[in-house]
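re: that chain from earlier
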Amino acid sequence: MDPVLLGEILAGLMFFGVIGFLMLGFPVAFTLAGVSLMFGLVGMWMGVFDPSNFGSLAGRYIGFMTNEVLVAVPLFIFMGVMLERSKIAEQLLLTMGKLFGDLRGGLGISVIIVGTLLAASTGVVGATVVTMGLISLPAMLRAGYDPKLASGVICASGTLGQIIPPSTVLIFMGDMLSGINAQVQMAKGNFAPTPVSVGDLFAGALLPGLLLVGLYLGWMVFKAIFDPASCPATPVPEAEKKDLLREVVVALVPPLVLISAVLGSILGGIATPTEAASVGAVGAMVLAAFRWRLSPRIVREAVISTATITSMVFIILFGASVFSIVFRLMGGDNLVHEFLSQLPGGTTGAVIAVMAIMFLLGFILDTFEIIFIVIPITAPVLLNLGVDPVWLGVIVGVNLQTSFLTPPFGFALFYLRGVAPNSVSTGMIYKGVLPFVGLQILALALLFLFPDIATWLPRWIYS
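^ sequence. v structure.
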């Protein structure tokens, strides 16, 4: 058999083998590395893979560990964990609930607003959904909210951390797309390509993220007008209104200042994402200290949680590197290129196919796992077909956020199920998120029809 064809067959079998082992429940990082090593040995035995290629792994791992951009990841995670452990997020939720309580749908509106702020400060979906589920869901149920609507609002707002900067997912995608875009452009003969940075991706994701927030708020207003029984007002006692303005200022202004400083310095070109992340981490500790909630115990818990999450992400990245080397050097790149380039619809058909695959993978894999596997395989082909790298990164983020919400396997649904009372059934949670899944699909359609939603702001800022 032709060695090239044999290598492509092995690469395809390896991809489905990885998916199969993951569905059996094996750990992701070890599955990626282990299955890839097995297929690498088979490819070596059949003469279609040179084992000396594994020698490049050491250089890759050192490159990850010394990559200045990726240093921002643990810093942003620490910033979010510190805000959550010091109860700053909890105080923000309670205060905003009082501010909008006199309005029908006011509690839902406050959850969306706070979810947006937490997304811009934590970027950790699980922590946001759990925090809001523990605090807001009981309050919404006591106020007479439809459990389905309350569950949907909390899950949808909690997943905004996938797309609203400074999302850790965007940091990894920005770093990957930067290198891939440079390689694709140089292969085309462009030896001075326009660089793609994490800042570009942050700027590109800002308007789509705000678009989703606007759609969520619009749905809450719609429910308040046409189905007021599902989201009644919760009037605040007059005694509590006296100091409400001060409470709002104390709870809202410091996080807003911190978020504005972090994002503003990145988008304005004043600081790199890593420098801004360090400011955010220190700023979160300062906010906790001002609230008299900074203690050695809280710092220790935040550090341990940050180390755990960061280690999980990077060990998956290391495993994905083994997969990428074996897949690409056995001819997987050619296989993917032929498959995507021959799809009906040209570039649009190729993008839709990749988005559909990533959406389905979102039912069984975490976001980081998906981007580490799929982006290195498919992005070179899509960028070679003329897809804008910033637009691609943003639409991948929105697509994975949609997958996180979609029943029956959406991860956000499991996070909420873990903290919801027994009176809220799994079926209620599933039904509650369906309108928000529809809004996500609408946002995806708008991004397809009007790419400038994602590409205009980066061009305007960095032109």
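The longest helix spans residues 296-329.
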